[in-house]
Specification:
Oligomer: heterotrimer
Structural class of chain B: mainly alpha
Subcellular location (chain A): Cell membrane
Largest sheet of chain C: none
Shape of chain B: globular
Family (chain A): Belongs to the CPA3 antiporters (TC 2.A.63) subunit B family.
Order of helices and strands of chain C: HHH
Radius of gyration of chain C: 18 Å
Number of helices of chain C: 3
Chains: A mainly alpha (301), B mainly alpha (484), C mainly alpha (104)
CATH class of chain C: Mainly Alpha
CATH topology of chain C: Helix Hairpins
Strand content of chain C: under 5%
Order of helices and strands of chain B: HHEEHHHHHHHHHHHHHHH
Number of strands of chain C: 0
Distance between the termini of chain B: 18 Å
Pfam families (chain A): MbhD, MnhB
Radius of gyration of chain B: 21 Å
Strand content of chain B: under 5%
Structural class of chain C: mainly alpha
Helix content of chain B: over 70%
Protein name (chain A): Sodium:proton antiporter
Largest interface: A-C, 91 and 76 residues
Number of domains of chain B: 3
Domain Na+/H+ antiporter MnhB subunit-related protein (chain A): 180-271
Helix content of chain C: over 70%
Chain lengths: 301, 484, 104
């Protein structure tokens, strides 16, 4: 299998390089999509299925869709006119950093294991049996709460930039509607399943939210969903709901147990699932609106 | 310590409310800022009275869990943020109003609805950053901070501002990714990422590279010379209230992390310290030269920030062992004085530019107008930046030079004094022109009328001026035990 | 069979090194490209390189259960990055738009 790993790593490097040096935007984005899928495969090889799911759905899929949207709206790139000295300096710096990193990883001190025994000892009290979900929603839930704040801050920034004349997507033809009739409910089902599964197996709110966003995007492209026609206030409320539930739960837990984000004993799983449910809806909506754009709350259509 | 987490959650929830209920954005913004300032004051008092406190979120102790730690340094930084925030809020209310009016300029409405959620997010992220005891958590707070700060830059919507915002976001993201790469390597080397990992990193090559990467990420985010390339454009093309927040508060987040790294035992390698001393000195020189050559007032103030960041980084890297000496306190005091003075200065410059319709330094020498409140505020803030007594800047430089003399580091003393002389030179370019009234004043000259916007600039400038007399309070906080 | 010249070439080491190389590639292209979209792509490739360091370090070898904490870090990083990428792309489109207007 070492040979397979070597080939996969080489293919990742080639795809990454071609994504960054293709002369045209379509080629670059195609390279990036291939790159993302190969990277997801390598995460599976390293026993990180949660990460592989998220990389395929969000890191590659959704990012690729955003890139394609931008490429369609922007003028084609001009040829690079960077002075040779800057190229040489950048090459030197890049080689130095990559070389330093390579030396560092080949010279790692014997594996210092800190987290595994702690996670193993506390997993029973976390309310879920998937350790990644336990870390995200219980042991280090503060990170996840702030991560939702990042998503919303990005949405606030996109909205503050003002409208960018989103043209309504073209109708995609008669075959698209039956496709949507299957896809949209299916994405909701799969999202729900991933959410429920996340407690015990790879999956969880982020993967579920990404799948939900995929279903919403399909509806958007079919013309069945037009965020621009909905008042902005309720859309913002939908995006903020998850994090508001999360913050309220954090404070409620503090009232009940005396410690921020310490869920009451025995009820951890219910709390986590409730928070994750809110997060899934908000993540789906936020990712969709990051794609389609959104007006500021009080702005008129 | 119930209120510690509220310092983060409250402004953040207020930001959500201001976003959803955008017509009342300014009301939510004001309420959130004032409430957060109250919490900040309470935190400072309780840390002063009963010492530092830490809470393990969810009851999970570090290294697995995340700890919020409120010691004197964190409490001082949070109080500084609250103080500057209140001043900036007054200016923002004066500029864009509290409520929508019947017939409203769309630009004014857009600024009001855009500014408040972004400012509240900035406030929440800064408070979270000052309290965080975990490197990965710090990375996440930096991302909120970066996005909100870029939003503040882009708010004015001009092409120059958009371009500056893009470069700012790219540089900020590159900085946080360097930080994250350092965190990843720290995990690979020592198996954990709480701040307690820092002393363990000096033992291995991977750990030392991790520290170097974290420091370079912080340097990029703090606009440390020569990584400051993105900063003057971003700080000088934003709206005045936004510039004040960016220059006075946002760069402090990264400088604070540098100081934390020192206090936690992360900056022990001599090569790293000498490197930072050189970059700090370089920043003082380069920022001053650019400020001397700048033709626009906002650009001069932005380059003066480059020079001041150099000085603060110098103070951090010469501080010696934080367990035995108190030289590191100079860095904290300089950060405090720079925050107050620079916020006052950007607000004053905004008023001057609004009055004159331009901010060219050559055009400050007006013949038909006498200097007004804004010019006065600028001059007071300049005195504090230069570090004349009784300002907070003076106390900071005093503690710094005192510590340097104690170490016998005379060349560094000379550097600090040279930087001070240069700051006198570039700031007097502005002040002398504003004062040149006399024979130039045309008949019928009048002072510009007072505006609510002037109150904020003058208030902050006077706080900076008298902070030196009140410096017992910040020093009492800093002298308390630290958490590490 | 272990290939020359690395006596104990493991999947972890391979992906560690691939991550280092990705960081180098991304840094080089990010610093030498003047195209806004390429710079955004470069930052995405850079974050994958960082994720490789995390995930490879979390791996405890064949058969052993990997450390879940870095996996959670990488998951968080992926979501954070898509948010920042969306913001960057919105800014880039806006710059392109105002550029086209001012050229008219």
């Amino acid at each position: 299998m070492i040979v397979f790993d070597l080939m996969l790593a080489a293919a990742i490097l080639v795809a990454g390089w071609s994504a960054l040096s293709a002369p045209d935007r379509t080629g670059a984005i195609a390279g990036f999509l291939v790159f993302g899928l190969l990277v997801a495969l390598s995460w599976v090889r390293l026993d990180a299925p949660d990460v592989a799911l998220a990389e395929a759905a969000i890191g590659s899929g959704l990012t690729g869709a955003l890139m394609l949207r931008a490429a369609g709206r922007m003028a084609p790139p001009a040829a690079d006119r960077v002075p040779r000295a800057q190229r040489a300096a950048a090459a030197l710096l890049a080689c130095g950093l990559a070389g330093g990193l390579a030396v560092a990883v080949m010279d790692l001190p014997g594996a210092t294991i800190v987290y595994d025994p702690l996670v193993r000892a506390d997993l029973g009290q976390s309310g879920v049996s998937n350790p990644v979900t336990a870390v995200l929603l219980n042991f280090r839930a503060w990170d996840t709460l702030l991560e939702m704040a990042v998503l919303l801050a990005a949405l606030v920034l996109v909205a503050a930039l003002g409208p960018r004349g989103t043209p309504r997507p073209a109708r995609l033809g008669p075959l698209y509607t039956p496709f949507l009739r299957i896809m949209a409910p299916l994405s909701v089902l799969v999202a729900g399943h991933l959410l429920w599964l996340g407690a015990t197996a790879p999956g969880g709110a982020f993967q579920a939210g990404a799948v939900l966003c995929g279903g919403l995007l399909a509806l958007y492209f079919g013309g069945a969903l037009r965020p621009a026609a909905v008042p902005a206030g309720p859309l913002w409320a939908l995006c903020a709901a998850g994090v508001a539930v999360f913050a309220a739960a954090a404070l409620a837990a503090e009232v009940l147990t005396g410690t921020l984000l310490a869920y009451p004993d025995g009820a951890d799983k219910i709390w986590i699932l409730a928070i994750e449910g809110g997060l899934t809806v908000s993540i789906g909506a936020t990712l969709l609106l990051l794609f389609t754009g959104l007006r500021q709350g009080g702005a008129r259509a | 310590m119930t209120d510690t987490s509220l310092l983060v959650l409250l402004p953040f929830l207020a930001a959500l409310a201001a976003t959803i209920h955008a017509r009342g954005a300014a009301g939510w913004g004001l309420a959130g800022t004032v409430a957060s300032a109250g919490l900040a004051a309470h935190l400072a008092l309780s840390v002063h009275a009963s010492g530092p406190a830490s809470i393990a979120i969810g009851g999970w102790a570090a290294p697995l869990g995340i700890t919020l730690r409120a010691d004197g340094l964190a409490a001082l930084m949070i109080a500084m943020t609250a103080l500057v925030g209140l001043g900036v809020c007054v200016q923002a209310l004066a500029a864009w109003g509290l409520r929508p009016t019947a017939v409203e300029d769309p630009r004014r409405a857009r600024m009001r609805m855009g500014f408040w959620p972004l400012w509240l997010s900035t406030l929440a992220a800064l408070n979270g950053l000052y309290l965080s005891g975990d490197l990965f958590n710090l990375y996440v707070t930096f991302e909120i901070l970066g996005l909100a700060a870029v939003g503040l830059t882009a708010l004015s919507g001009t092409r120059r501002a958009l371009r500056a915002a893009f470069d700012y976001l790219v540089a900020g993201l590159a900085g946080s990714l360097l930080l994250l790469l350092g965190v990843a390597l720290a995990y690979a080397a020592a198996g954990r990422v709480d701040l307690g990992v820092l002393p363990l990193l000096a033992d291995s090559a991977a750990g030392r590279i991790a520290i170097a990467l974290i420091v370079s990420g912080v340097g990029l985010k703090a606009a440390l010379f020569p990584l400051h390339f993105w900063m003057p454009a971003a700080h000088s093309s934003a709206a005045p209230a936004a510039s004040a927040i960016l220059s006075a508060l946002v760069v402090k987040g990264a400088l604070y992390l540098a100081l934390r790294l020192l206090l936690e035992g992360g900056l022990v390698a001599d090569a790293l310290r000498w490197g930072l001393i050189c970059l700090g000195a370089g920043g003082m020189a380069w920022g001053s030269v650019c400020a001397l050559r700048a033709d626009r007032l906002k650009l001069l103030v932005a380059y003066s920030t480059v020079a001041q960041i150099g000085l603060i980084m110098l103070a951090i890297s010469v501080a010696g062992d934080p367990l035995t000496g108190t030289a590191w306190q100079a860095a904290a005091l300089l950060m405090l004085s720079h925050a107050l003075a620079k916020a006052a200065m950007f607000l004053a410059v905004g008023r001057i530019a609004e009055e004159l319709g331009h901010d060219r330094i050559s055009g400050l020498n007006r013949s038909d107008l006498r200097p007004g409140a804004a010019e006065f505020a600028f001059a007071i803030a300049a005195i504090s930046l230069i570090g004349l007594p009784p300002t907070a800047g003076f106390v900071g430089k005093w503690v710094l030079i005192d510590g340097l003399i104690g170490q016998g580091a005379w060349p560094v003393v000379a550097l600090v004094l040279t930087g001070t002389v240069l700051s006198v030179a570039y700031l007097s370019r502005v002040v002398s022109r504003c004062l040149r009234g006399g024979p130039h004043i045309a008949p019928g000259a009048r002072r510009p009328p007072w505006r609510a916007g002037d109150v904020a600039a003058i208030g902050l400038a006077f706080t900076a001026l008298f902070m030196g007399l009140l410096s017992a309070a910040p020093l009492a906080l800093l002298n308390g035990p630290l958490l590490s | 069979m272990t290939p020359f010249p690395f006596p104990d070439l493991t999947p972890q080491l391979i992906y560690h090194l691939a991550g280092a190389a990705l960081v180098g590639i991304a840094l080089y292209r990010g610093a030498t490209s003047s195209d806004l979209l390429t710079r955004i792509l470069a930052l995405n490739v850079l974050s994958v390189g960082i994720a490789a360091v995390f995930v490879a370090a979390a791996n405890r070898g064949a058969g052993a259960v990997p450390d879940p904490v870095p996996h959670a870090f990488v998951l968080t990083g992926i979501v954070v990055l898509v948010a920042v990428t969306a913001a960057l792309l919105a800014l880039a489109e806006r710059i392109d738009l105002t550029g086209a207007k001012s050229d008219d």
